[in-house]
Design goal:
By secondary structure, this protein is an alpha+beta fold. The protein has three helices and four strands; from the N terminus they run ααββββα. The chain is rod-shaped, with a radius of gyration of 25 Å.
Length: 138
């Protein structure tokens, strides 16, 4: 009787290890960016209440220029300091521009929303900030 050995050769094992290494080299950065994008969602969502308030104010006033005076008389919430796990501030300028800033865990990126008022369509928003180049926000 002939004795047949079973198992993998060294070459086969090395090929498997190489394939796993290549997959890990591609997957780890992609996963890191995905988790950072998920964390930055907290920063972008912090602007929602202010957006709604500015839209309401603009529809009543007919413009966004007077929708934030640094206090709450216009119906727009006051500026916010540190919030959640990933946010450092949300501020609103006199022209309705909202700026949300993340902390070091999301690379201190900013998310800026600029309103444009049209009496027919209402308020439309343009997103900008450092998060656009980092592909963490749309």
């Amino acid at each position: 009787m002939k004795n047949v050995q079973k198992g993998f050769t060294l070459i086969e094992l090395m090929i498997v290890v190489a394939i796993i290494g290549i997959l890990a080299a591609v997957a780890i950065p992609a996963y890191s960016n995905y988790t950072k994008k998920a964390k930055f969602t907290e920063v972008t969502q912090a602007t929602q209440a202010i957006k709604i308030a500015i839209e309401g104010c603009a529809s009543e006033a007919g413009a966004v220029t007077d929708c934030h005076d640094g206090v709450t008389t216009s119906g727009v919430p006051a500026d916010v300091g540190t919030f959640g796990k990933y946010g450092t501030s949300v501020t609103t300028a006199a022209n309705g521009v909202i700026t949300a800033t993340g902390n070091a865990q999301v690379d201190n990126l900013t998310y800026i929303l600029t309103p444009t008022y049209d009496s027919v369509r209402g308020v439309s928003w343009t997103a900008s900030g450092t998060c656009i180049a980092a592909t963490l926000c749309k």
